[in-house]
Design goal:
Order of helices and strands: HHHHHH
Distance between the termini: 22 Å
Shape: globular
Number of helices: 6
Oligomer: single chain
Largest sheet: none
Strand content: under 5%
Structural class: mainly alpha
Radius of gyration: 14 Å
């Protein structure tokens, strides 16, 4: 989280903070493939780990929801009618799917994923 938070803190505006949040997750995993593999394996329900920060929990999306809400309050975002929770959940789904695809196929284009996520954020936040 320190890596992600540093990138968010360095972003110049509220909408850019949402983009930085998403991109930092991708960049961290790309730079720490072994961590990505461990995280994926710990989410396997067949092997209980006691980890309660899972894709379906609000704890997972709360930081993104806070950033989205801040962008909306600042006027630095479009007036999307979708709730912040829906947008944050979809954004995390994009992150998770991209990392899963990349773990399976190392040639998967994470930079293209970041471009698509940026477009999503601009439209959905």
């Amino acid at each position: 989280m320190a890596f992600v938070q540093a990138r968010v803190d360095d972003a110049p505006g509220s909408l850019e903070r949402v983009v930085a949040y998403a991109e930092a997750h991708i960049d961290y995993m790309r730079n720490h493939r072994d961590h990505a593999r461990v995280i994926a394996e710990t989410l396997d329900d067949a092997h209980p780990t006691g980890i309660d920060d899972r894709p379906e929990t609000s704890r997972r999306t709360d930081p993104a929801v806070d950033l989205i809400d801040a962008a909306r309050r600042s006027g630095g975002a479009s007036a999307s009618p979708e709730s912040s929770v829906v947008v944050a959940t979809a954004l995390h789904g994009m992150i998770d799917s991209a990392i899963a695809a990349w773990l399976d196929r190392p040639e998967f284009d994470l930079d293209a994923t970041k471009r698509v996520m940026r477009q999503f954020v601009v439209c959905a936040v």
